[in-house]
Design brief:
The protein is mainly beta. It is about 5% helix and about 50% strand.
């Protein structure tokens, strides 16, 4: 009787969740979601590309509300991102659970390829990488009995092999099992078993407008696989979806909840100002119904509706350890970051951010179109051409910096746009010689433009200039990431080594409006 009541309660809760579903469930640059359930707990991971730590991991008890509990790859021994760009680094991870152990498998693009790590606690620590033989990207694992199968997409074909789950050693030859329905770049494969069939879920069309999810099934794991007659089972590249602000729907993973209902997590992006997206690819959720013919229908065959989550506000107190949502570009040079006396001291890197070599930058993913980020610099020690401030960053070929700069003993406020090899100085304002002791910077966005401000008293903020968000969009800049916002420092004189020039930041405040 108790079990029946719990089941009924679970079903009722799921009905409420479906009614109150807010998409995206994890906003901002959180692409390529993969999910697994352990009891009544759900764990989800995302791609992280050039950022460190890598592979953010989230926990939920209802599939709707998620909290980041860490990062799977948080040690340099696990993840080397030397010279990685927004096109490289950590691609599409998959998380799975089997016999008391969690597995995360992914691809390090631009380096050694596919690997997996394991843990007994999803919050970590996770093991060092176990490198794998089979190539391609977007690898996934499927466990059945004592066997562990790996699936990925070398040579644009979905390929399967059996591996040793402990050592990663490949036990069988790689075999092509499906080429998709004809869309370009068949990728993101996952295998499930239901009602006597093996189901193979993949993405096709590329991660832009034509992105879609297709599915096939077979009575045996190696095939042959028959395609669902209703493919694609999810896409907005259609008459139904063409006018939606949500586009690029694809790269999904299925999960069965504790009450037996099925759901799909998948990525999509939100367009702003026409056909531009700058927040990156985000994580969405939709219900899945299995029809009498054994094929799944996503969201009742309807378009995914935008229903944004509650607004987030975050105050980063540098007197405390940084949260798991704070990220660096590539592996950070630890000597450039020093938390002391409640402040974050940044030592200026000799490399400008467009050089793409461990810039002195730490920040957060922008998760809402309408947001305000602010910081205060309370102390600095500059020499000629040094600077520090805030940066709105899409990738090394597209970002905006708002900073205080020392130029021959004069303090100047500068606003700089870097875009595809062009460095445009939008504002260069002289604010005095030796009187400046502290300064505030603020960036505000309304989804259409970024507004950059500074203040010398923390009360009166002076608008410097606006920059269209579209200039920092994926369509303009490229890459597979989304905008991050944070603080940085740079020394413009290469004869000064790291440690000579610094700025002390008191806090970083992020508020969605």
């Amino acid at each position: 009787m108790k079990k029946l009541l719990l089941l009924l309660l679970s079903v009722c809760c799921l009905q409420v969740w479906a009614q109150e579903l807010r998409n995206p469930i994890i906003p901002g640059f959180h692409p390529d979601p993969s999910v697994c359930r352990v009891g009544t707990d759900y764990y989800l991971v995302n791609s992280s590309f050039e950022y460190f730590p890598g592979v953010p991991i989230f926990h939920s008890s209802d599939l709707v509300n998620w909290k980041q509990i860490g990062n799977v790859l948080n040690r340099e021994s696990q993840l080397s991102l030397k010279d990685a760009t927004g096109w490289q680094g950590i691609y599409a991870p998959t998380i799975r659970y089997n016999n008391g152990r969690y597995y995360m498998i992914t691809t390090l693009v631009g380096d050694k390829g596919n690997f997996m790590v394991t843990a007994t606690n999803p919050a970590g620590p996770w093991s060092d990488p176990i490198w794998l033989k089979q190539g391609g990207i977007d690898p996934s694992l499927y466990f059945e009995g004592q066997k562990c199968y790996m699936v990925s997409n070398p040579d644009n074909t979905i390929t399967l092999c059996e591996i040793d789950a402990k050592t990663g050693r490949q036990l069988t030859e790689s075999r092509s099992i499906w080429r998709g329905t004809g869309g370009r770049w068949p990728e993101g494969p996952h295998i499930y078993k239901k009602s006597g069939y093996y189901y193979l879920l993949i993405s096709e069309g590329g991660t832009e407008l034509a992105h879609s999810i297709t599915i096939a099934r077979s009575k045996t794991i190696y095939g042959p696989y028959e395609a669902c007659p209703a493919n694609p089972i999810l896409t907005h590249c259609s008459l139904k979806g063409q006018d939606s602000p949500i586009q690029g729907t694809g790269h999904g993973d299925l999960v069965e909840d504790a009450s037996g209902r099925w759901w799909m997590v998948f990525l999509a992006y939100r367009n702003f100002n026409g056909s531009y997206h700058h927040l990156g690819r985000e994580t969405f959720l939709a219900p899945v119904e299995w029809k009498a013919d054994g094929w799944p229908v996503v969201n009742g065959g309807n378009v995914i509706v935008l229903n944004e989550p509650p607004k987030k506000s975050l105050y980063v107190d540098f007197g405390k350890p940084l949260g798991p949502d704070m990220i660096y570009i590539q592996n950070p040079d630890s000597s450039a970051f020093w938390q002391h006396d409640g402040k974050m001291r940044l030592y200026g890197s000799v490399h400008e951010m467009y050089v793409n070599k461990q810039p002195t930058f730490v920040g957060l993913r922008q998760e809402s179109a309408k947001v305000v980020m602010e910081t205060k610099i309370s102390a600095f020690d500059f020499v000629d051409s040094d600077e520090a401030g805030i940066c709105v960053y899409q990738m090394h070929e597209g970002y905006v910096q708002c900073c205080v700069n020392d130029f021959r003993g004069n303090y100047r406020i500068k606003l700089r746009l870097v875009l595809k090899g062009v460095r445009a100085l939008l504002v260069d304002r002289n604010i005095g010689e030796t009187l400046l002791e502290k300064i505030w910077f603020r960036v505000k966005s309304d989804g259409s433009k970024y507004y950059f401000y500074y203040s010398i008293d923390g009360q009166k903020y002076i608008l410097l200039e606006t920059v269209p968000c579209s200039l920092l969009s994926t369509e303009t800049v490229g890459g597979f990431t989304g905008v991050t916002m944070g603080i940085y420092a740079h020394t413009g004189n290469p004869k000064y080594q790291m440690g000579r020039s610094y700025a002390d930041f008191d806090y970083l405040e992020y508020v969605e409006e």
